[in-house]
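Retro notes (design track)

What went well: tokenization of the new backbones is finally stable.
What didn't: we kept losing track of which sequence belonged to which structure.
Fix going forward: every design gets posted as structure first, then sequence, in one message. First example under the new rule, 188 residues:
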């Protein structure tokens, strides 16, 4: 029996996503410029993490991997800040988003049993306080480590628009986005 995508969206919302929608992977727009931003170290994480560039691999391979999935669950979390310069609030929002993303991901893995999944979060993996990459060691948690939507060259704002998820959520807010790509089992 096929999975009811409305249930998947409902589950994400019940697990504290502010917005959630199913994305058709065929409609996702990719662009190599996101990797160039990584290479310019815009996020200050370049060459520090197994799940980020350059360790994650060439952008064309990542884009092709993402295209192998049929659908994805796009989730957005939104947090109110005290001001546009509330750096502590932004850091807290990132932590809360990470916890929400991990909760939704664990729920999906347990409930839906997809044939395969590719979870992508906002920013580089932050599972470990210090990534093993920095110590030239293998990833400590390869089954739990996740890359970012941007590292895969996905145009996040275009994706949000195509799914009916708002880009702007009000004055003094910060929004974080994650995408869990999946393929259903053939017998579903």
């Amino acid at each position: 029996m096929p999975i009811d995508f409305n249930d998947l969206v409902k589950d994400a919302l019940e697990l504290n996503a502010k917005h959630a929608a199913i994305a058709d992977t065929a409609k996702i727009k990719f662009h190599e410029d996101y990797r160039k931003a990584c290479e310019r170290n815009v996020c200050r994480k370049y060459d520090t993490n197994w799940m980020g560039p350059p360790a994650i691999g060439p952008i064309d391979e990542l884009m092709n991997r993402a295209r192998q999935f049929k659908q994805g669950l796009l989730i957005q979390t939104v947090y109110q800040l005290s001001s546009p310069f509330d750096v502590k609030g932004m850091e807290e929002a990132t932590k809360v988003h990470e916890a929400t993303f991990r909760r939704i991901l664990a729920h999906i893995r347990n409930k839906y049993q997809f044939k395969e999944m590719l979870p992508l979060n906002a920013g580089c993996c932050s599972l470990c306080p210090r990534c093993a990459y920095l110590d030239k060691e293998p990833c400590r948690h390869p089954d739990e480590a996740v890359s970012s939507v941007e590292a895969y060259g996905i145009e996040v704002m275009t994706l949000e628009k195509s799914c009916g998820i708002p880009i702007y959520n009000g004055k003094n807010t910060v929004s974080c986005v994650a995408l869990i790509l999946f393929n259903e089992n053939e017998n579903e």
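Added context from the reviewer: Residues 41 and 47 are 9 Å apart (CA to CA).
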